[in-house]
Amino acid sequence: MLHHVSVGVRDVARAATFYDPVLKALGYKRVMDYSPGAIAYGESKDKPEFWIGLPHDQGIPNGGNGTHVSFAAKSKSAVNKFHDAALRAGGSNNGEPGPRPDYGPAYYGAFIFDLDGNKIEATYIAMPAPAKAAKKPARKVKKAPAKKKAKKKAKRR
Is residue 144 part of a domain? Predict the structure, then answer.
């Protein structure tokens, strides 16, 4: 549904020192760099999905009340690494890694405020294994009796 998300920062280079290790913990990397104005992160150069940048109005960036961005994690371990990397990079804890049963039975996440107050999250949702389809009984093919086959062959000749 979404093409990309951007968050405002005061200083792109400073913000990159936070986001480089934090997003690397989830398998993302810098895919575009328009410094000093903006940097994009994603899985590949053709998918710049998360941007940090100076606000267009050149004003002071601020996190929206209730706004946050959640990054998909491939495992609970990746969520934990994201949280640890964010704290080491100067972010503020806004929710330890762990289950969030209020959000769903398989939801596991961690919340952080970045250096500019943007609320970010890493989320892992364990998907249940697909149910095995019941085997359908094999269809029996009726075989023509040998005598009928012989008569059909004789008529063809």
Answer: no
